[in-house]
Amino acid sequence: MSRNLLLISTSTTHGTGYLEHAEQQVKTLLEGKKSILFIPYARPGGTSHKDYTAKAREAFEKWGISVSGVHEYDDPVKAVKEAEAVFIGGGNTFVLLRQLYQNKLVEPLRERVQKGMPYMGTSAGTNVAGRTIGTTNDMPIVHVKTFDALQLVPFNINPHFQDPDPNSTHMGETRDTRIAEFHNHNRQPVIGLREGSMLRVQGDRMTLMGPHSARVFLQSEKPMEFKPSDDLNFLLEVYEA
């Protein structure tokens, strides 16, 4: 599989503009490309597809990359099949996945990525790159026929992963607790991506990038911390079947 992925936890970190914290990684992913297809389906309301695409366009044009929105095409499947690269932005993962299925884009996206088309996602766009959306933090505000996602990688991702605050009086579930509950019913690994972190996947190799470690959850095992210098390639194979 000729995967060429950049899976980012969030589009904006504290004190930075849209995608600024991932600028170098984005430029590397898109080296030699002149355009990218933006899929703005994740916004549940308040921001139109046109406005969301304009926001992405402003960021990429500074780097010499032109942006078109998939909603601007009469045939979104054809747009995906002809795209040089694809970027799926953040928002609500349930809204995003429903729109991907309704517009029949799941299989075309999977096929293009398997053949090497660069794919980048932030937040919900990163969440749908995994095996399922079962570890999203989002509220299920719409019904989806399946949780099965693009399956560009054989594990699940929890973007915006947060560690418990030892000084907090909050008595609700932590992210660790919720992912442990997920593993009572699902076997695939889960990667907790902290803000500012991202995964770079090239074929059968994966690198953690950014300033933070990632928390890796395997079924029936204690969570493990992996630094950017650590080997994460086993996660691309462990539950591939």
Structure explained in plain terms:
- With 241 residues, the protein is an alpha/beta fold.
- The protein has a single domain (4-236), classed as 3-Layer(aba) Sandwich (Rossmann fold).
- The protein contains 7 helices and 11 strands.
- The strands form 2 sheets. Strands 3-2-4-5-1-8-9 form a 7-stranded mixed beta sheet. Strands 6-7-10-11 form a 4-stranded mixed beta sheet, with no helix packed on it.
- The longest helix has 13 residues, at 49-61.
- The chain is globular and about 45 Å long.
Which key terms come to mind for this protein?
241 residues, 11 strands, alpha/beta, globular, 7 helices, 4-stranded mixed sheet
Concise overview:
The protein is of the alpha/beta class and 241 residues long. It has one domain (4-236): Rossmann fold.
SSE topology sketch:
Blueprint: E1 4-8, H1 23-29, E2 35-39, H2 49-61, E3 66-69, H3 76-82, E4 86-88, H4 93-102, H5 106-114, E5 119-122, H6 124-127, E6 156-158, H7 175-182, E7 190-192, E8 198-202, E9 205-209, E10 214-217, E11 224-226
Let me know the largest β-sheet: 7 strands, mixed
Query: How many separate structural domains?
Result: 1
Q: Residue ranges: pLDDT <50 for 5 or more in a row?
A: none
Fourth-tier CATH superfamily name: Class I glutamine amidotransferase (GATase) domain
Distance between the termini: 14 Å
Roughly how many Å is the radius of gyration? Answer: 17 Å
Count of DSSP strands: 11
Structural class estimated from helices and strands: alpha/beta
Mean pLDDT metric: 95
| CATH topology term | Rossmann fold
Note the overall shape.
globular
**Order of strands, widest sheet:** 3-2-4-5-1-8-9
CATH architecture: 3-Layer(aba) Sandwich
**What string gives the helices and strands in order?**
EHEHEHEHHEHEHEEEEE
If helices are DSSP runs of H or I spanning 4 or more residues, what is the number of helices?
A: 7
* CATH class division: Alpha Beta
Fraction in beta strands = 15-25%
Helix content: 10-25%
